[in-house]
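Example with several molecule types.
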Amino acid sequence: MEILALSGVSKSFPGVKALDDVRLSLRAGEVMALVGENGAGKSTLVKILTGIEKPDAGEILIDGAPVDFGSPFDAWRAGITAIHQETVMFDDLTVAENIHMGHHPTLGRGPFRRFVDWRAMRAHTSAVLARLEVNISPDTVLRELTVAQKHIVGIAKALSHDSRIVIMDEPTAALSQHEIGELYKIVAQLKAAGKAVLFISHKFDELFAIADRWTVLRDGRFIGAGTIGDVTRDELVTMMVGRRLDQVFPKVTVPIGETVLEVEDLSHPTEFDGISFKLGRGEILGFYGLVGAGRSEAMQALFGITRPSRGRVRIAGREITVRNPSDAIRAGIAYVPEDRQIQGAILPMSITENITLPMVDRVNGGPVLRPKRERALARRFGERLAVKATHWDQPVANLSGGNQQKVLIAKWLATDPAVIILDEPTKGIDVGSKAAVHEFMGELVKSGLAVILVSSELPEILGMSDNIIVMHEGRIRRRFRRAEATAEAVVTAATGGA
Amino acid sequence: MDLTALARRREVVLLVLIALLLAAVGARAPVFLTPASLGDVLTDTAILLMLACGQMAVILTRGIDLSVASNMAFTGMCTALLSKYHPELPIAVTLALAPLIGFCLGAVNGALIAWVKIPPIVVTLGTLSAYRGMIFILSGGASVVTHEFSRPYLDFPRQSLFGVSALLWIALVVCAGMAVFLNFSRTGRSLYAVGGNPLAARYVGIGIERCQFLVYCLSGAIAGLCGYLWVSRYAIAFTEVAFGYELTVIAACVIGGVSVAGGIGSVSGCLLGGLFLGIIGNALPVIQVSPFWQMAISGFVILCAVIVNSRSEARKGKLILRETEPPVPAPLQVRPETPS
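Resulting structure tokens for the full complex:
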């Protein structure tokens, strides 16, 4: 029986068409796998289903009747519960309260009939948890639970309110092997209880293990749907990536010079293991992997933000110890982080201040600031990157995303690095700025820099890199030269295939 | 509950601390531990306890109410003038009017914060000055002093029932009411949700604006009631009544384990925090310690409280490598209302 049907759903954000005429159907007692590359529109689809975003066009039918979600609460009342990667719950409250928040049972009679009935709440919670056959106390504070246990509380919440549609957005991304097994069991129980499950995952193994049907999205468009038994992994991969490369990348190939950076067996107790690679002058080395494959974590360790457990790093043949980012900057490594708003730009500060920030001491040569020299430096690199601003003292907050990104790159170039790490440099910026960033990468390598490009955008990786390293679950899965890398092979490696 | 779990509860730690404090002071000045003297300490602290309860509700929602002391002084002046010019009014009118005036002042805060979306610290910093200024306008800068009050106005809080003063009874009712509200009403529980995770609160259909408005009204109403009690207790109303007292109130909350980041706090913690400050304030003069030490000590205790609160915030990684097991939850993490 079809519980939920979407048809013709479209959604645009400024500059991007996130969803275009997408359809989806969920049936009771079935697990539907939603498959697509990063940026294919899965997250937007989930946001529409959970009432966070409103579609521009299209129809959502529940039991055949059209619905219109004005708020997340409406969607939730209609029986849709999403278990997010980062669970949206109350860390400081107990499991019982998390499950009942907003709908606490009350005593119902007597002079205190409107009082919260704590006993009923605990009993109900215990019953639901027992149904899931998990050993969590209703009185435990959520903060004390592991990610897996929090997911289970999320599922218990769905069950306790008789949600009929459960959306799981990469629920196993942060789970250990044992926990994943537990989760599968619970998914099976949901199925048995007649719920419809929308399961989003990049891991094909698990899709084939638990899903009944599949839907593939690509570039915000519906590509296909069917029964999981009638499809192979290769076919799914082809549907996911099978696009013509509609972007032309301004790839500049310069002969790769002597090795500037050599990383050997870089490891971390919980996030990545045995990362080794060499990087030469004029080379762009692409790091590809699914979200959470450990790429950014490895780069952060390289840059001294986190401490690796072992491993050696050599710059121009000389071994260096990186204890903190300023060690890395001195050694000639620059890192343009992924989330520019959080980790990168200091929004209220001016362009000049942002650009000179990592080298305030070097520019000024003493404790007294020399605004003229600062501004000259900022202008030199700002102009080199063609930052569009009215003046160099303008706050970075007022710039567009693309220009903010350019300021960040300018900031790191000003430190005169030998190696520059660009972590998702074009994420969430408009097409024009993207092209500018790509073009600029060409200039970087022409001027003798070595570039590490961490990206989840396959075309960007394939289009810009000289060599590609694919990571999967914290380890290097495969290495490709530019000539031998195909979209299918890279995605297969990233999803854990051979 | 086993012993270690018990020791982790903020309330227990505070209780032990208070007992130690009492023992130390008692060793120097045994007179401090007589029932009469301890009763005085309680009566002295009663107003602080009520204000702390109101303030806690505000802080739970990630807000702050800096205007409580000004609100209190303004309401106090209103009731004082009323008593001066209309001594015939029954005390019940004062008792009803004081929370009402306070409520209205709090509602102004609440409306600006919840619907105009001005940050709480800005709004209440503004009303802190505004309400204080209104006292001057109302009274022309003059004080209302002892003989100008009507008898019932001064006598009511001192009346005793079962050997306990009316002031303490009122404090007891207010604090118990607050505890029941926070623990046994849906709205009360929602406050924890709003402060703990506003986004998630919206997901489960909680009206965040309504909650915000409500807590400032509550805090205001309590401040209003305390305004009358304060003026009556000290038998004087003037522009500078309780000047800067909001900081003591906030200190009581923080010592009592209320997280300024919102979502964590309990009435019992608040009461113990207030009691702790009250005992320090009353005990130090008894053992001839300068009152300036009082500020230093409460400052030190606040810092300790904040450090203890932040200890459990150690960052966990993402656990990408498959074979790594999730770390055993740190043993120091504790129940919501009682960070270790």
